[in-house]
Amino acid sequence: MKTILLVISLLLLLSCNSGPDKSYQALLSDPTVHSDDPEHPGKALMEQYCYACHSATAPHDERLGPPMIAIKKHYISEGTTKEEFTNDMLNWVKDPAEEKSKMPGAVRRFGVMPKQVFPEDVIQKISEYMYDYEIEQPEWFEEHFQEMQGKGMGKGNGRGQGMGMGRGKGQGNGQGNGRGKGQGKGMNGKMQGASSNSNPEVTGMRYARTTKAELGRNLMQTINRKGTVAAIEFCNEKAYPITDSMATVHNAMIKRVSDKPRNPDNKATAAEIFYIEDYKSQLAKGEDPEPMILKKGDETTFYYPIVTNTLCMQCHGDTSGDLKPGTLAKLKELYPMDKATGYSVNEVRGMWRIQFGEKTD
What we know:
The chain is α/β, with parallel strands linked by helices.
């Protein structure tokens, strides 16, 4: 992590065009990042990189993708080695394709995962953790999985077939890291692990991830139900209120800023444009972007890049190819000063800017 201690005065102005939706006051979307968990580094990485879409706590009917326990059960069968499982995960993430998937039901429901660029060592650590350890599962999952198995819709039962509640080959108490120590552990609504308040990187990543997840969940639902044009209207009307409401939940200031903003209110400052350019340079060199932490007294400002994937191209791609005429017309109507087009996959589109105190939870 790049920790930059700057004794500077950094004034953050959060422009709000409406007050927070009170329905979000009680929404603590999946606060599960615990980097100080001693089990395995893959646990925190899985929560950081995967849970925006594959959370264990998102409601069944509001998910963006299957929970990680479902992926584990479908990809690990009795004879699957850790190397085989890791290779399957690496091959899928590098180039997601319907013909590769062992989860046809998930593909039918959610579509193929957008191609994104993740560090290979991150995927390896996540895969190792998934293979060796119990992982969280939604309360509804075990019954749902058994029902699908009974209908012949599953593909591979996973270690210790159906043993999703902490049991597996060589039954025991589910402790340790030996193979087959159970497929998952049920979620009762209470998250385990120590508070992340002492680690500003973990806190900032959690706030960014949960806000991204809430925005993404609503956006994907709109796209799936009404199409891309309606999604543009959704962003125009709801993105700020949702972000403001998540800021209220977390007692923080949360905003997305860009050197090429769609909404002028999201324009980055001169200093922030310098940070964005630095992130672009890192990405161009094949380096993994890391959070940037600025501290002033008890106040912390967290920055982390927003990187495009294939899904982003529907609204942020090339105006002469990626964007459909109806999408382009709606963008011109709602955002006459729009600069946020012309991107390709795996480019820095902006940053999260999150400000919080030492005790934010």
